Amino acid sequence: NNNNNNNMAATSTSSDTELIFEEGVRTMDDFYKEMIRLLKLEDWFGKNLDAFNDVLRGGCGEVDPKGKKFVWKGSTAAKASIGTGKWDTIMEIFHDDDNSGHENFVVALQ
């Protein structure tokens, strides 16, 4: 293992088990751009909460989210900027509170 490559990957990409939101998410558009980056989604991704819910089932991008842990850097600032209502909805979707058909994802807030 080359530690230099691992350190670089940890700051800008994700690992086999973690998908890392970079700091700086302040709007819903920023959130969708991070989801596109993390899952390597196609251009046709709908950029809405229903589409976000759908992509968590897998099969929509080059990266399958199944079995992954999401790590959200700068989550406190993101929640403050996005707003509690939308933030809570994002978390409900990650955790599949409405049993929509995907797993209950772990989201580590940093």
Keyphrases for this structure?
single chain, 110 residues, mainly alpha, three-stranded parallel sheet, 3 strands, 10% strand, globular, disordered N terminus
Please give a quick description of this structure:
The protein is mainly alpha-helical. The chain has five helices and three strands, in the order αβααβααβ.
Q: What does the average pLDDT come to?
A: 88
Task: Indicate the low-confidence ranges by residue numbers.
Answer: 1-12
Q: How many whole angstroms does the radius of gyration measure?
A: 14 Å
Could you give the order of strands across the largest sheet?
A: 1-2-3
Number of strands: 3
- Estimate the strand proportion: 5-15%
Largest sheet: 3 strands, parallel
Helices, by number, come to 5
Strand-and-helix sequence, N→C? HEHHEHHE
Please estimate the helix content: 40-55%
Label the overall shape: globular
Distance between the termini: 26 Å
Structural class: mainly alpha
